[in-house]
Amino acid sequence: MIADSTPRVLSIQSHVVHGYVGNKSAVFPLQVLGFEVDSINTVQFSTHTAYQHIKGNVLQNEEMEELIQGLVLNQVDYFTHFLTGYSRSPDSLKQIAEIIKKLRQKNPNLIYVCDPVMGDNGKMYVPEDILPVYRDTVVPLADIITPNQFEAELITGMKMNDLNGALKVIRALHEKGVKTVVLSSTDLGDDKNMIGLASTQGSCYKIDIPKVDATYTGTGDLFAALFLAWSHKTNNDIKLTLEKTIATLQSIVNDTYEKARAIQPAGKIPPALIELRLVQNKSIIEDPKITIHAVEIK
């Protein structure tokens, strides 16, 4: 068993050789913020799927089982946090549920942060039979979930057409046993802003998220990792956690956009130019400057 007080995360997500999604988007920020991170890569691809050519391979369920066994046998399976993102199949997701139960035998206070990656903008990009596994098995095990609007609607079977609808969806997720519900992005804002929402123990906050004229990959993975980190560092002050998370994301996204536009001033920006600039923004990750404040919803 690991004896020191450093928070320890097991992160099970996808991996790319080039670019920033999944574990590549989550591990570096967590390490910079003082977390030990052990990572299992569910897939290893050359790049993320917005590129023209995708090469690589998928971790089989028995291989995942073997890796977990190795951690248990060597008694290095004590974690303070567990983070999951993209899962490719219902079976791999069921396996995640079993891993959580196993890790909680070692540390009953383990905090599970679940980013239920299923789709965006009304479209699923995982098999549809993953949904019931998230809804009925995985989400009830989570302490913190960070779905986008579409994913939250899928899990609850409810639509959010306004703020009131969003609060009903959040309530339904709490009723599944989730302590902290975070909607990482919703279309409830206006032409200039999306809205993010976070709710825990009777407090709910909303924050404006300025829109940027580009499509990013890996921002959801980064959001979940940052929210995990700051909720721990602020002792679960969700207002401050939401503000720090959005401040970091906005700085990185804006810097990435500006550098891309300097190279390609007009037209759609290709994926290679819009990879998140994490390394270049290390100081921002460590100490984000809050410019947008969250507002409590009474």
Notable characteristics:
298 residues, alpha/beta, ten-stranded mixed sheet, two-stranded antiparallel sheet, 9 helices, globular, pyridoxal kinase activity
What is the ordering of alpha helices and beta strands? EHEEHEHEEEHEHHEEEHHHE
Give the neighbour order of strands across the main sheet: 3-2-1-4-5-8-9-10-11-12
Low-confidence stretches at least 5 residues in length (pLDDT < 50)?
A: none
Radius of gyration: 18 Å
* Main β-sheet description: 10 strands, mixed
Distance between the termini: 44 Å
Indicate the mean pLDDT: 95
Helix count from the secondary structure assignment: 9
How large is the share of residues in beta strands?
15-25%
Keywords: ATP-binding, Kinase, Nucleotide-binding, Transferase
InterPro entries: PM/HMP-P_kinase-1 (IPR013749), PyrdxlKinase (IPR004625)
Pfam families: Phos_pyr_kin
Organism: Parnassius apollo (Apollo butterfly)
Task: Explain what this protein looks like in three dimensions.
One of its GO terms (cellular component) is cytosol. The protein is built from nine helices and twelve strands. The model has no long low-confidence stretch (mean pLDDT 95). The longest helix has 26 residues, at 238-263. The strands form two sheets. The chain has a ten-stranded mixed sheet with strand order 3-2-1-4-5-8-9-10-11-12, with helices on both faces. It has a two-stranded antiparallel ribbon with strand order 6-7. By secondary structure, it is an alpha/beta fold. Helix 3 (90-106) runs parallel beside helix 4 and helix 7 packs antiparallel against helix 8 (238-263).
